[in-house]
Amino acid sequence: MVEIEHVEGNNKGKVFLYALSTCVWCKKTKELLNDLDIEYSYVFIDKLDSKDRDEQMKELEKWNPRCSFPTLVINDKKCITGFKEEEIRKELE
To answer: Residue 17's CB: how many other CB atoms inside 10 A?
Structure first.
């Protein structure tokens, strides 16, 4: 069972973050979402067992073929890779 974490906030549609627990930019992205009070879900890929990790990486690859972190998917339409504060704010405010 994949552990998807959910954070309450203002609902701006489906906001999903693929992240690594050790990644500074992932942490900054989460902090930004929290500061904007956005409702979102996230998964720390590096904390999953190998089967679940492979499954989540396949999902991530659909959005971001480079499989880099963080990868933020908004409403199953928009994908933002890396910590791009201005772009994230523009999409979610």
So the answer is: 22
